[in-house]
Design a protein that fits this description.
Blueprint: H1 8-33, H2 42-49, H3 54-59, E1 67-72, H4 83-91, E2 95-99, H5 108-125, E3 132-138, H6 140-151, E4 159-163
Parallel strand pairs: 1-2, 1-3, 3-4
Helix pairs in contact: 5-6
Length: 171
């Protein structure tokens, strides 16, 4: 006599449940990697997967009103990939410029020249130049930021954060 846990019916049910769970997991993963959810890198997953806690925002210091953060996305991405970080920085009181470029057609040097000139022009049009200009770049965005700083003598970042940028490979 077979036990209830080893019955063919129960095994089929477990197998179907596992297949359904696996299919759901593959669909979810496919949506991320296929671009439907616009996440393709571990940084995107970390920045977008977790909710921004109000307690965390309250526990951190508030930015000075004249602080600006420039965000640059990575290779084959768009400014949407930095949107969650943008929202978190805005909630902290930073002014944020989430810049975009077509990394498939523009080289890092071309993007740096265009974005650098645009940033300097926008800064000149402000009534008050921000006390601090910070920059965050993911992957190729970090290389573009380094090039902007090298090419634009008027623009000196107070800090630059490069997330997964291939600094050594770019030399």
């Amino acid at each position: 006599m077979s036990t209830p846990s080893s019955s063919p019916r129960r095994r089929r049910l477990v197998r179907k449940s596992l297949l359904a769970l696996g299919a759901a997991a593959l669909g979810w993963l496919g949506a991320y990697t296929g671009g439907v959810m616009q996440l393709s890198t571990p940084v995107d997953l970390v920045l977008s997967a977790y909710p921004i806690s109000g307690e965390l925002l309250e526990a951190t210091h508030r930015a000075e009103p004249q602080s600006l953060v420039i965000l640059l996305h990575g290779l084959a991405r768009g400014s949407h990939s930095m949107a969650r970080l943008e929202r978190a920085l805005l909630a902290q009181g930073y002014e944020v410029w989430n810049e975009g470029y077509d990394s498939r057609t523009e080289s890092a040097a071309e993007a740096a020249a265009r974005i650098g000139a645009s940033v300097v022009k926008r800064l000149r049009n402000l009534d008050l130049w921000p006390r601090y200009v910070h920059a965050v770049g993911h992957s190729m965005g970090g290389l573009v930021l380094r090039r902007i700083e090298a090419d634009q003598p008027m623009l000196r970042f107070a800090s630059v954060v490069c997330l997964g940028s291939p600094q050594r490979a770019a030399r």
